[in-house]
Amino acid sequence: MSTEPGTRRRGVAETTAAIESAAIDLVIEHGYDQVTVDMICQAAGISQRTFFNHFKTKDAALLGTDEPAIDQQAAREFIVSDGPLLAEAAGLVRIEPDRLPADPSLIVRRIDAVSQNPMLLARQMERLTAIEDELRQIIALRLRQDAIKAGADDAELADLPEQAEIITHLLAGLMRYVGLSWARRAGDGTPPPIDAGHLTERLGRVIRKLG
Amino acid sequence: MSTEPGTRRRGVAETTAAIESAAIDLVIEHGYDQVTVDMICQAAGISQRTFFNHFKTKDAALLGTDEPAIDQQAAREFIVSDGPLLAEAAGLVRIEPDRLPADPSLIVRRIDAVSQNPMLLARQMERLTAIEDELRQIIALRLRQDAIKAGADDAELADLPEQAEIITHLLAGLMRYVGLSWARRAGDGTPPPIDAGHLTERLGRVIRKLG
DNA sequence: AGTCACTGTTGCAGTCACTGCACTTAATCC
DNA sequence: GGATTAAGTGCAGTGACTGCAACAGTGACT
């Protein structure tokens, strides 16, 4: 009896992927509010309890397991770099490559579903706040580096933490733009890599106008 | 028998304010997760059903009824202004004065509670997205004004909407900072007015470092 | 005084998201 | 072949939230 005589037997990754895929498809078809966890479970062929063993919340299943994180190597380079601060900082946050879903179309479907839904968008923002502390510290280090190079006095150095905080908040807003514009460019095909050069150039033009 | 012989009699505003105040205090004391709607109801002296007649969700009670909105008069001045773009734009978003709670300390307590909690922060962000479209259009007008003054060519003008979008996202991040630092400065006393000059000066120093 | 509409409030029953605990079954290791 | 572990399940319970029906004051009209 190899055909599911009760408890399914598959790897964690497979089940997780099945849940994610089923959840996204259902939300795209019926809308976020109309989809219950029970429906997702039925579509994925599992029990509700198993669903919550794989995902902490319904939203988590829709956002997926690929959380944004700071690229530590890039962060070390960032601190001592001379390049444009904001554009470079935006490049620090990436999705861990080993957590990317096996099915690439899932990402596009997900962005489609998430961008339609304010609730999910808010949750996605919430994820970013998790790494904001880390980000602020890295930016503070970079500011310190820059200030020392420029021969700053003590009063200026003392103000850097506050400045780092402002920049971190600006960056949080910027990252939302990066995500959105990337999704927009992806359309319904395979997502293209983020164009760092393009972002840098455009940001440069924008920043000059802010002051 | 004037003392609550069953159904309380007070205006909507009074009950709403009582709920908000009780909710905030409980969250500050016990933390978001530890506070149930039932607890809030008990503290405010109402039934659960009444709670949900006043607020759609538990989060809504904590965020309050005073939603941020754009000051239209200020917006008109902003479009033709020569001042620092980002700092001035941050001043456009205000809480409608007639929706301010009677008890001024409530705002400070609320920001305190909200800033502690990622869940609530996300919800607050969600509210801001409601006015982001409007904000983007205003910024686009200002950019156009500036560009024409500077004698920009068609290619530059065509890029302005995209730039406006980036700035709007940066601004969304900045507003979070403004709220936080304002609450921090308020401490536990009466909230002081936001110091526009201070913000402008500090932002100017920061923006120079972004490029 | 009697009726009427309105407002603020309530209880109750039910759905949905989510959790803790105890338990089964299938694969794996020794 | 028995012990261990990984994946999954059932169940009972909590907390957020909704729809429905009802009830009590408040004022207004007659």
UniProtKB/TrEMBL annotation, chains A, B:
<dbReference type="InterPro" id="IPR001647">
    <property type="entry name" value="HTH_TetR"/>
</dbReference>
<dbReference type="GO" id="GO:0003700">
    <property type="term" value="F:DNA-binding transcription factor activity"/>
</dbReference>
<feature type="DNA-binding region" description="H-T-H motif">
    <location>
        <begin position="36"/>
        <end position="55"/>
    </location>
</feature>
<dbReference type="GO" id="GO:0000976">
    <property type="term" value="F:transcription cis-regulatory region binding"/>
</dbReference>
<protein>
    <submittedName>
        <fullName>TetR family transcriptional regulator</fullName>
    </submittedName>
</protein>
<dbReference type="Pfam" id="PF00440">
    <property type="entry name" value="TetR_N"/>
</dbReference>
<keyword id="KW-0238">DNA-binding</keyword>
<dbReference type="InterPro" id="IPR023772">
    <property type="entry name" value="DNA-bd_HTH_TetR-type_CS"/>
</dbReference>
<feature type="domain" description="HTH tetR-type">
    <location>
        <begin position="13"/>
        <end position="73"/>
    </location>
</feature>
<keyword id="KW-0805">Transcription regulation</keyword>
<dbReference type="InterPro" id="IPR050109">
    <property type="entry name" value="HTH-type_TetR-like_transc_reg"/>
</dbReference>
<dbReference type="InterPro" id="IPR009057">
    <property type="entry name" value="Homeodomain-like_sf"/>
</dbReference>
<keyword id="KW-0804">Transcription</keyword>
